[in-house]
Amino acid sequence: xxxxxxxxxxxxxxxxxxxGVANGVANGVANGVGRGIGHGVGRGVGHGAxxxxxxxxALVTAASSYLVAAGAQGAVIAAWNLNGVDPLQTTxxxxxxxxxxLDFSGLGAxxxxxxxxxxxxQKGELAGESLAVVGTLGNxxxxxxxxxTFGYRDLTLSFATRRSxxxxxxxxxxxxxxxxxxxxxxxxxxxxxxxxxTVKLAxxxxxxxxxxxxxxxxxxxxxxxxxxxxxxLSVSGSAVPAPGALALLGLAGCAARRRxx
Length: 261
What we know:
Oligomer: single chain
Shape: globular
Number of strands: 13
Radius of gyration: 39 Å
Structural class: alpha+beta
Order of helices and strands: HEEEEEEEEEEEEEH
Number of helices: 2
Number of domains: 2
C-alpha cells in the first residue's frame, strides 16, 4: 500500500511538474508578448503624439509667419515716378507701380516738366523728369491722386520735392472725406536740395474703405519764375490679412491649447 502510494504520488508529482512547466511557459510567453505589445503600442502612441505636436507647432509657425509678412509695413499700393511726364501732351499720369492716376489738369498753365531725382524712387528706377509748378500762376492751383485701397490700412504718402527761393512755399496735402476736402498736412519744400516728405494718413480711416483721393494745393510763390518740383510720389500701407489666414491662425491656436491639456 505504501509503495503504491509512493508510486501514485510520484506520477502525480510528475504531472504537476509537467503542468507547472507548461503553465510557466505559457505564462512567460503571454507575459512576454503582452509586454512586447504594450511597449510597441506605447512607443507608437508616443511617436504619434510627437508627430501631432510637431504638426501643431508647424501650423502655428506658418500661420504666424504669414500674418507677420502680410501685415508688414511699406507695401506699395501705387507709385508715380513721373519719368516722361509732359504737360503739353497730357495732364493725367498713370501709376508706374500699382494702379492709380495723377491728374494735374488743375495746375493749368503753371505745370511744367523739369529735371527729376532718384530720391524716393522705387527699386531700379532712374532719375528722369519731375512735375513742376512754376510762377505765381500756380498759387491756389492743385493736382490730385486717385487710387484703390482695398486690402490695406495705415496709409502713408511720400514724395520727393524741392523748390527755388521764390517757388511755392505754403503748400498742403488734402484728402477727400466723401463730402469735402480736408487738410491732412502742410509742408514747405526745401529750397536748396531734394528731400523726401512723408505724411501719415492712418488717422483718416475712411481712406481704407476701397478708394481714396488726395490733393496737393500750392501757394506762396513770389515770382513768375519761382518753381516747386515733385517726383517719385507713392502711397503705401499695411496689407490686411485675408479672413482665411485669420481662421488658420485661430485653428492653430486651438490645436496648441488642446496639446497643452
